[in-house]
Amino acid sequence: MGSVRTVAIQCALLVACVALLAIVAPEPARLWVVLCGVVALAFFVSVSCVRHAQITRLARRIDEVLHEGRQIDFSNCSEGDIAVLSNELSKMVSRLARTNLLLESERNALSDALADVSHQIRTPLTAATLMLPKVERADDARERKQAVRELESMIERISWLVTSLLKIAKVDAGAIRVERAQVDVRQMAARATDPLMAAMDLHDVELVLEVEEGASFSGDMLWTTEAVENILKDCMEHTPCGGAVTLRASEDALATRIVITDTGPGFAPDDLPRIFDRFYRGDASTQGFGIGLALAQALVSVQGGTLSASNGPDGGARFVIAFPKLVV
User: Fold this and answer.
1) CA nearest 252: which of 307, 214, 302?
2) Strand (E) or helix (H) holding 206
3) pTM for the full model?
């Protein structure tokens, strides 16, 4: 209604101007003034009607997009300014459609992640709940002590899982603080392996360190230490008794590389593309995955490094962390 009222007002003004010109014009020219005014008025009205019809059609299509979720093609408007408006509206609708698909994908991913988290936490919680009656019924002090240790292990697993999930959430949200300093690889490797030495002895797994003297990179000591520790822990858990886990580090003009290998079963070929997916578990007979490797990759990536995994030429898992040089 607003556009129709505007056109009516403009027509009235045009008629008034023509009438004024006809009054002030000489007698022989009045007829031509009136004819020209009528032609101009007819042209103006026809153009306004066409534009009004196009704008109405655009408004109707926009309403269909907003309320019915339909994909509308705006490309059939040929007039200049209307075509520009139609083109911009088409871009907007396409962008909204892509955003909607992205939100749908993220919602599904969030739902799957929550289901995985629930399953991962519920398993040790259930085990811990079942352990409590065992502790209460244990008459032998040695048996009770063993049950308490198992219960403590379950609680530690839950605590580690929750902490890891919070760290990954911070990385995803860009809220993690990364220090930029020169990191000595030998010192970092010592800090990463120290908490695992007792577990290595219990698993009868040898730890081999071969770090090039002076190897270093620009990054965060604490986060890199945690990433390397998670990888070492994963390798240790999948290396049979009498096996070895090896950490080698070297530096060249392009990058500093940390290579971690083990003598375990390695990865199934079908599982390699999903090794760093959260909570993914492939062939139970080969290397297992969970949240540790996903956290390691997130902590390396946030520093500008890369983490890849493969099977070694002689078998076993092989992880490569690379921190490229900023200046070559």
Assistant:
1) 214
2) strand 206-211
3) 0.60
